[in-house]
Amino acid sequence: MGTPLDRKYASKSEARAEHARLHEEIAAHDRRYYREDAPTISDAEYDALRLRYEALEKAFPELATAESLTKKVGARPGEKFAKVKHAVPMLSLGNVFSDEEVLEFVARVRRFLGLDESPLRFTFEPKIDGLSCSLRYEKGHLVQAATRGDGYEGEDVTANVRTIDEIPQRLRGDHSDVFEVRGEVYMTHKDFAALNVRQQESGKTLFANPRNAAAGSLRQLDPTITASRPLHFFAYGWGETSALPAKTQMGVLEALRGYGLPVNPLTALCESAEDMLAHYRLIETQRATLGYDIDGVVYKVDDIALQERLGFVSRAPRWAVARKFPAERATTILRDIEIQVGRTGALTPVARLEPVTVGGVVVQNATLHNEDEIARKDIRIGDTVVVQRAGDVIPQIVEVVTEKRPHGAKPYQFPHVCPRCGSAALREIDERTGEADVVRRCTGSLVCPAQAIERLKHFASRNAMDIEGLGDKQIELFFQEGLIRTPSDIFTLEARDRASLTKIKNREGFGETSVRNLFAAIEARRRVPINRFIFALGMRHVGETNARRLARHFGDFESLRETARDAAPGSEARARIDSIDGVGPVVAEALHDFFAERHNERELDALLKQITLEPMPAVASTSPVAGKTVVFTGALERLTRDEAKAQAERFGAHVAASVSKKTDLVVAGPGAGSKLKKAAELGVEVISEDEWFTRTGQG
Ligand code: IVH
Fold this sequence. Notes:
Layout: H1 12-34, H2 43-59, E1 83-85, E2 95-96, H3 99-113, E3 122-128, E4 131-138, E5 141-147, E6 153-155, H4 158-161, E7 178-186, H5 189-201, H6 210-218, H7 223-227, E8 232-241, H8 249-259, E9 268-270, H9 273-286, E10 294-301, H10 304-310, E11 312-313, E12 316-317, E13 320-324, E14 328-341, E15 347-358, E16 361-367, H11 371-377, E17 384-389, E18 396-400, E19 425-429, E20 436-442, H12 449-460, H13 472-480, H14 487-492, H15 498-507, H16 512-524, E21 527-529, H17 530-536, H18 544-554, H19 557-566, H20 572-578, H21 585-596, H22 598-610, E22 612-614, E23 629-633, H23 641-650, E24 654-655, E25 665-668, H24 674-682, E26 685-687, H25 689-695
Parallel strand pairs: 2-13, 21-22, 23-24, 23-25, 25-26
Antiparallel strand pairs: 1-6, 3-9, 3-10, 4-5, 4-7, 7-8, 10-13, 11-12, 14-15, 14-17, 15-16, 17-18, 19-20
Helix pairs in contact: 1-2, 12-13, 17-18, 19-21
Bound molecules: 2-(butylsulfanyl)adenosine.
2-(butylsulfanyl)adenosine is lined by residues 91-93, 125, 127-128, 132, 148, 184, 236-237, 298, 317, 320, 322.
């Protein structure tokens, strides 16, 4: 990093003021990182703040008092953990909160597999409230341990995990060459309390709950600190393996126990749905005396062959579900209602609360959903309200304690103008039903700074253009400075006013290196797959899936643009978009609205001068059906419809509901009628269900 102190100070007092400001800011980030395990800035941004703080002390040594953060041991380390890519992603679980939802889950699994009355076993496992970890054993030796991270890439915490007594360095008995054990690292209530006493005695920050303490302890760059923190582990699954030791979930867990790994003793096998509910009720009564936190239970289909058939939907398995304990509640005061303006102009009310602890976490904000919700619950500023928090869900206001309402509290008036730009905020009327939309929207899409900022955030975000280093905070800053107002500005940033950048660099702890890295990240995204670009434009009703559909259908951006521009109601172009599989009239209208708008045209021209669009990446599948459009028809015997669809998608095929010129393959079972006829007319290949299994390499 270049010299972070490249601005000369007029006076020592100016330097002192900045040092004090940075002290507060860094301490707040440390609190979020250590206590809450919820950092709000990237490591690079944090490093930049720290470097600047240290540089100030070097230039003005009298600032380096005993209170200085540079004197504190255990301050956040400057180095980082190495990244580890998970060979098998570490995904999450769907949540349910009631008996009914558990029964629905069981019914859904049965339906998917086409099972009626035949027995179906589920395992019952406590859901440990810690942090998940993947332990890689090769030839029985622990070679690597990684945190979950974003599920695809985690942090290498091998040295720290080696200090956890319960985790064996060598597996006992017979095991396959490669075995990745997945489980939860946690801290007991007793150890958590003792750790906080030690923290207090040595003047360090306290941990908010055992989960944060476990996470903070495992993510120490100095393993001797981890070694001094009593961590435990329960294994509940596996990642990459060269062979599995059993055919059932329970069998594998027993094998893991045999290898010397701790498996939770309350794990059980359920023979029926009633059994599943009974186990839940039992653990509810044991929860308080377990000595460690659990936040619910997990049910998993026991038969691994069935798990494989069920597969995954987006980021969660179809074969497992978490039943969470009921939400925790607390009472507090509603200080204010703030209106946030989103990318599409939606006005969202957010409750600002008197901070209150709900289930071990301090809550200051809660969602109020929309205008009608506030009116329905008659929520007024100054009210005493019941706040609820369930798992990772955003806290909600359940009800108002009306007896405690202050005198003179008035019903809340939802604004009819945008609080950010003053444009009228309206609720659209649905033409068919005549009903007003629940969402009130700002109509100033082209002048509203809030919408512009949110659109830019979306444009640069991970699943869109994925510009590293251009996060929410940077966008807000660049927008305020007038440096980035539209997406195309991002790509001309480097070529423009360097003087203004230097200004930013100094004031916001934006170091030389971070600016250079940002420019490199922007350069890297001058070539981008067309589907990402379409999604990045942030058109209404065009999420990632529709962006892919449009990219697949049109192939190049210009033909999408022309067709959408011409797609006035009733036109041929409108009918063409309408007929794209999965894309309906609502999307067609949104596309037309977007492309027919002259300001958008101008911005698109500017943007396309800066970047080059690449074809959508081919599905990473070597299956002969990858990239093909498949239609299933007739009675399938080995697969349910849902399963057939999921299977085809897993192999990279696209499943359509009806046969058209675009169909590549029809899989027909007995009783197939009109679709078979249509396929014959169009000369589309028709195969049997058995042939489908052969082609997809499933025997
Ligand atoms: S199974 C694809 N089993 O809960 C399977 N997870 O909400 C995903 N967890 O990230 C995980 N106890 O950190 C599983 N018995 C258990 C668990 C468990 C705790 C955690 C784990 C996971 C999170 C998902």
